[in-house]
Design brief:
seven-stranded antiparallel beta sheet, three-stranded antiparallel beta sheet, 33% helix
Length: 319
């Protein structure tokens, strides 16, 4: 028995350490290109407006919604381009910069990956100035919700109005027989990941139906994109056959939406393989929005479920 145990230990170490070295690498340019190609396929495109018949709305918006819901149902992931303008992303980055200077406004969760700090948007009104009271988190965020309703609603003379991410959430919950009164926004926060950050653990945001949106506030390439195992939100083997996780490489202002049951993690970024400091990517600030059903608040699992997700993600990555 001792001999068998020793052999298993040696084999496990022999397999794990090469994997760990590979897993902690900075991403290559070819990996980024491949990821962009697949993400482009998950990004429904707006159609050109029919200027000859502007009184009759084009069905393009409906078609885009259908594509988003199909992507979420089949893959667990969809992509929304240009949800925020460059001016708007700069404004949110300024919010993060100011919050990082406020004692206690940004935290590194206990057990969280190094190099990541989570910040809650500051209250806009003076009577909401208590940054330290987590019980008032939803009240603090309420001032920002009206602004979030504008996301993806930029107008253009040539392009059909882009879909509101809240509308996608409403349609996706409805597909699962959850009405607009039966789910709510459960998280609104800003995440700041720095050069030198480490890989997160593999995890799921909820064991039940929910939606998470990550909006890039700068270009996300090898500087720690989120990795997602497509199809891992369902037990349908036909939808869960991908051999590598999807890398969410996004342009500034783009968003990726995924089912809360998707197995995912944020990658780290050491910057060690860049030729010089000027060649390094920037820090990765993102805006995070989450919706969950009232009856199934996150995370919906215990210590065993959390550990199982770590094992599952690691095992899938090693294959």
């Amino acid at each position: 028995l001792a001999t068998t145990t020793g052999i298993c230990t040696v084999v496990a170490c022999t397999c794990y350490y090469p994997y760990k070295t590979y897993d902690e690498r900075d991403l290559s340019s070819s990996e980024i290109v491949k990821a962009r190609t697949f993400l482009n396929a998950l990004s429904p495109k707006a159609a050109t407006r029919n200027t000859n018949n502007i009184n009759n709305p084009s069905p393009a918006s409906s078609n885009m919604m259908d594509q988003h819901i199909t992507n979420l149902s089949k893959h667990g992931v969809t992509v929304c381009e240009s949800v925020l303008t460059p001016t708007e992303t700069q404004r949110w980055k300024e919010v993060i910069r100011k919050q990082l200077l406020v004692p206690g406004a940004c935290v590194t969760p206990k057990g969280g990956a190094a190099g990541r700090r989570h910040c809650f948007p500051p209250p806009k009104h003076r009577h909401h100035r208590d940054h330290h009271n987590n019980h008032n988190k939803e009240e603090k965020c309420a001032d920002w919700v009206s602004e979030l309703t504008k996301l993806g609603q930029h107008h253009s003379d040539e392009i059909i109005d882009k879909l509101h991410i809240g509308s996608i959430a409403k349609s996706y919950f409805a597909k699962h027989n959850i009405s607009s009164k039966q789910y709510r926004m459960t998280q609104l926060q800003l995440l700041h990941a720095t050069v030198g950050s480490e890989n997160q653990i593999w995890h799921r945001d909820n064991s039940s139906v929910g939606l998470t949106v990550l909006i890039a506030l700068t270009d996300v390439q090898r500087n720690g994109p989120t990795e997602l195992w497509l199809g891992s939100h369902t037990d349908n083997v036909a939808d869960n056959h991908h051999h590598r996780p999807l890398l969410a490489v996004l342009n500034n202002g783009d968003a990726i939406m995924y089912d809360a049951r998707i197995l995912h993690r944020g990658r780290g970024y050491s910057g060690n393989n860049d030729s010089n400091t000027n060649g390094r990517m920037k820090d990765r600030p993102v805006l995070i929005i989450r919706w969950d059903a009232n009856e199934t608040p996150p995370p919906g699992t215990g210590i065993f479920g959390t550990q199982y997700a770590i094992w599952e993600g690691t095992f899938k990555s090693m294959l």
